[in-house]
Amino acid sequence: MPSFLDALKSQVGRKILTGITGVGLILFIIFHLIGNLTLFGDPQAFNEYTYALENLGFILYVLEAGLAVAFLLHAYIGISIWWNRRKARPQGYKKYQSKGGSSHQTWAAKSMIFTGIVLLVFLVIHIDTFKFGATETIMLNGHEARDLKSLVIATFQQPIYAFGYTVVMILLGLHLGHGFWSAFTSLTMKHNEYSALIYTVGIIFAILMAVGFLFIPLYIYFAGPDAALISY
Amino acid sequence: MADTFTVHLKIWRQEGPNEPGELVDYTLDKVNEHMSFLEMLDVLNEEIVKEGGVPIEFDYDCREGICGSCNLMINGQAHGPKAMTCSCQLHMRNYSDGDTIVIEPFRAKGFPVIKDLVVDRSAFDRIIEAGGYVSVKTGSAPDANSIPVDKSVADTAFDYATCIGCGACVAACPNSSASLFTGAKLAHLNRLPQGEPERAERTVAMVEQMEEEGFGDCSNYAECEAVCPKGISISAIAEMRRNYMKAALKGSEA
């Protein structure tokens, strides 16, 4: 019998880990989107939310460490699978096409490595822009806080950010289009009466996430800094 | 006599395992719609022999879709365009006059080319040798009734047992994964009372052998299920993952 650690390093274990980290990252982006939507709430709701988040203390470090591990493991396994496939078929086909039918070899599935790497690069830029971005300090309910809301609005006035984010969020949708369903299969769900439903729910979820995230930069860009929904 | 038509063929020719190969163009004008795909290749070979050439090597045995020998990549699809058929069950009525058909061998590190369209699939035999059996005496035919097996369990086991080991799953998989083959064999044996006692050892041994043979990872493309001539479900792969992780968890406790 392999040790549990060895089992995790096997092809099967790698898929289980991809599924678990994928589910973790899906939960993360759901919370991320809900948090972002506070931009459209009370004038200071977003800054109060980010203040609360940045002052979680020890819990924040645990969450950040967990997310970092999930991201890196997910990316590392994904890239190694893509790398291994070259070794597993040293000579490729002159002609290759999917048979269709029950195949899930969609554009979303075939572009996982591309969308994944773009998301990884995006993540670095994204953290640099907002987590480590320079912000004004404002007084919020008697304590000093970062005015992240102003930074968000200023950032998305710039077309490169507004449209860059939009493109990346469409790629996120594509990644989720295969990833959501794939996670269920990786975590050993068999085909049953719900399989088709889960695949459809995955696609709806992917579209919701992409549209939810890309709405914010596009709205801010086109509605301008004095837009009704985000005004102070 | 049926009307004949012409097809243009691009067929992989390779003299030996270590020789470089290439697609060679052939035009065959004696095709009729009733021919099977393999008969069409037979007729082409007769033409090649008449002209003093070396006939194209391709694998076949039963020509009725149950032996799993006729492993051809036809226009980029394992066993051609039809669902749940082997290459031998494909008929020329699926093609029209003037069509171009590309024929390549199944490609994977685990399936080295021997000659032309013939590949060595003994990697599958070694996966079976690793655990694809039961180590108990199952008795003679009447003894089959002495161990009650639930009808639904027997039916599901039989669905997985229909795997003929043709290798289309590997050939069509973008990653060259052998997960559907290995999973089907495991799902067949693991759920029956005769196979159940060795479930953990079998699952681990076959998964490890599959990896050792150089087959790639599964990315849940489900292309394997689409090309499988027996329509085996990727549920087999999910089940393999579950049993493998269960075995590993148990193993580390012991």
Q: How many separate structural domains of chain B?
A: 2
What CATH first level of chain A would be assigned?
Answer: Mainly Alpha
Strand order of the largest sheet of chain A: 1-2
Q: What's the quaternary structure here?
A: heterodimer
Sheet of most strands of chain A: 2 strands, antiparallel
- Can you tell me the residue ranges of chain A where pLDDT is under 50 for at least 5 consecutive residues? none
Radius of gyration of chain A: 20 Å
Fraction in helix of chain A = 55-70%
Q: What are the low-pLDDT stretches of chain B, counting only 5+ consecutive residues below 50?
A: none
Q: Which architecture of the largest domain in chain B would the CATH scheme give at its second level?
A: Orthogonal Bundle
Helix count of chain A? Answer: 9
Please describe what this structure looks like.
The complex is a heterodimer of chains A (232) and B (254). Chain A is globular, with a radius of gyration of 20 Å. Chain A has a single domain (12-86, 106-230), classed as Fumarate reductase/succinate dehydrogenase, transmembrane subunit (3 helical TM bundles of succinate and fumarate reductases, Up-down Bundle), CATH 1.20.1300. Chain A has helices at 4-9, 11-36, 45-54, 58-88, 107-110, 112-131, 148-155, 159-186, 195-223; strands at residues 137-140, 143-146. Chain A has 232 residues and is mainly alpha-helical. With 254 residues, chain B is of the alpha+beta class. Chain B folds into two domains: 4-115, Ubiquitin-like (UB roll), CATH 3.10.20.30; 121-253, Orthogonal Bundle (Fumarate Reductase Iron-sulfur Protein, Chain B, domain 2), CATH 1.10.1060. Chain B is 35% helix and 15% strand. Chain B contains eight helices and seven strands, in the order ββαβββββααααααα. In chain B, strands 2-1-5-3-4 form a five-stranded mixed sheet. In chain B, helix 3 (151-161) packs antiparallel against helix 5 (179-190) and helix 5 (179-190) crosses helix 8 (235-253). The longest helix of chain B is centred in the last third of the chain and has 19 residues, at 235-253. The N and C termini of chain B lie far apart (71 Å). The chains are: A mainly alpha (232), B alpha+beta (254). At the A-B interface, helix 1, helix 2, helix 4 and helix 8 of A face strand 4, helix 6, helix 7 and helix 8 of B. Chain A: InterPro entries: Cytochrome_b-558, SQR/QFR_C/D. Chain A: Keywords: Membrane, Transmembrane, Transmembrane helix. Chain A: The chain crosses the membrane at residues 16-38, 58-83, 104-127, 160-184, 196-222.
